[in-house]
Design brief:
The chain has 174 residues and is mainly beta. Helix content is 0%, strand content 46%. The chain is globular.
Length: 174
């Protein structure tokens, strides 16, 4: 059992986080004012990263759930997940009411999605080129552009200001 990737809601006193309980990981939101813990997803898929939208009502989510986004997605049985690719991660938009929209549908792994401070862009990491680099979309993934070409790869990102992104990566073998 573990809690990781906590993200403070930009508008209120709640924290979204990934909770791991035995087999899989799910999204939870804890409201500090009301002392209420709400489990948003509850399924066999791995939800591994989250990031709040500036409206405080949506999260970007990285998961291996593929097209399993409609209720009752949280109660998949062993037959329905046979042949599922648990090694491919895509980006989803998760409303705090639990509804999901799949934003990426690629054979590549996308990770660390985050909204720009004004909410008009999404930056994320993709291994599309074979190496993790930063991409930006302004139209919810209809198109994306790579903004880095780091041969050792990018490991994490976050927006700093409207025009600046902080990132970590490797240099000179680590």
């Amino acid at each position: 059992k573990a809690i990781y990737k906590p993200q403070w809601n930009p508008l209120n006193n709640s924290i979204a986080f990934i909770g791991h309980n035995n087999f899989s990981s799910d999204v939870f939101i804890y409201d500090l004012d009301t002392d209420i813990l709400q489990q948003i997803t509850n399924d066999v898929y791995s939800d591994i990263q989250i990031s709040w939208a500036s409206n405080g009502e949506e999260l970007l989510l990285v998961s291996d759930r593929s097209n399993n986004i409609s209720p009752p997605y949280w109660h998949a049985d062993i037959i329905s997940i046979t042949g599922h690719d648990f090694d491919n991660y895509d980006i989803y938009k998760l409303n705090i009411n639990g509804s999901l929209d799949r934003l990426t549908t690629t054979p590549f792994n996308e990770s660390y999605p985050c909204f720009s401070p004004d909410g008009n862009k999404i930056a994320y990491i993709s291994d599309e080129s074979g190496i993790n680099n930063i991409y930006i979309t302004e139209d919810e993934f209809k198109t994306s552009n790579s903004i880095t070409n780091i041969l050792t790869g990018i490991t994490q990102i976050d927006w700093y200001t409207k025009d600046e992104i902080l990132f970590t990566g490797f240099y000179n073998s680590g």
